[in-house]
Structures are given as C-alpha cells and as structure tokens.
C-alpha cells in the first residue's frame, strides 16, 4: 500500500522567518489521519530565512534528525554542543531525559531542511547531539543509511530507535530498490526531481506513506534526491 501525499495537501504555517509544510499534525495543524506513521511522528519541510531560526527550547524522549537540503543550520545546546551542518549533511539530537537547544540560519541565504522526529524505543537516557557529512556522490544510485538504530549501519549517525533514515540520489532513468519487509512502515519524500515509487508518481515535495510492500522501488523520471524513513509499525 502506498498513499500519495502531494505537497499541496500538507499542513502549512508561515511565521515571517519560517515557511513550513507539515507531513504530520504539528503545532496548529491537526489532522487525525496524519498523526504518525509507525514510529515516525514528525516530518516538517522548513524554509528558514537568512538570520531566522528556532530560539532555545526544550525536548525530551524524541529522536530528532535534521537533513539540510540547502544552506546550513547552526546548532547550540545546554550540553555545550555547537555545530554547523550544511547542505547534504545530517545532524541527530537524541533528546533523552531532556535537552534545550537552538537552531539558527546564520547564512546570507535561505536554508531548507527536513526536520524528522522518531519515537525512541525507550524513554529517558542521557541526551546527545552529533553531525556528519554525507557527500551526495556516495549515495548515487543507491540508498545509504544516514541515521540508524539498526544493526549493520555502522556509517550512520546513531539513533535510539528501531528505525533508519536513508538517502539516495538518482539520475534520470536510474532506479534503486529498498527492502522494507513485513511489520515495517516506510515514509518517503522527494526532495528534488520526479520519480515513481512502486509505480506511484511523485513530484518534488510530495510524500509517500508505505506499508505492506516487501520492496520499495524508486525510478527517477528526472534527476532526483530523496529521503526514506523505515520504522517499526
């Protein structure tokens, strides 16, 4: 089963410095049919104006993954972590028992990110933060784990969940397969280009909620960049 979620159907919020699209219920956007997908709770498509950002605020008991699509995001938290994550790269914050952080766009251009929240397997634990570069050339034509709590994903940033976040870039006409399997939920968003996911056509910004599909095949109609989240149901 694949449910196509066109970009135009997503929740939306505008705050001057922030233009956000919500794949799932978030803040003032509420849709009972879009509360979560497996252990995936939030997928926000955010455009942050130059100089804008999220002032210090708390989180607990959530794995928060940020994929930077354009520009860069600068992180600071109450653990003393500071870092700048730029386009194509990923940062992970395991909120654990509690963390206070800020995220600002200190660049002279708008920054575009995917903000992804996944429920952890257990509550509490020491909070943590990390960032890592993932060159797009390394994911050309194949899925690569960017963040994962699953065995065998040694090159990915660690998360505390039975889940993985994967990225792929495909040239027009190329395809890539991912084995999802039984008891798993997948959610795929096309960051750029166009593609078909098991025959379902997607444009940039569209989402695909996937379940009961043993293999997910993505076929690029145009050069495409995509992110896929695989979680337990």
Automatic annotation (TrEMBL):
Residues 151-230 form the Quercetin 2,3-dioxygenase C-terminal cupin domain. It comes from the Bacteria. Pfam families: Pirin, Pirin_C_2. Residues 12-118 form the Pirin N-terminal domain. Transmembrane segments: none annotated. InterPro entries: Pirin (IPR012093), Pirin_N_dom (IPR003829), Quercetinase_C (IPR041602), RmlC-like_jellyroll (IPR014710), RmlC_Cupin_sf (IPR011051). Belongs to the pirin family. This is Pirin family protein. The lineage of its organism: Bacteria, Pseudomonadati, Pseudomonadota, Betaproteobacteria, Neisseriales.
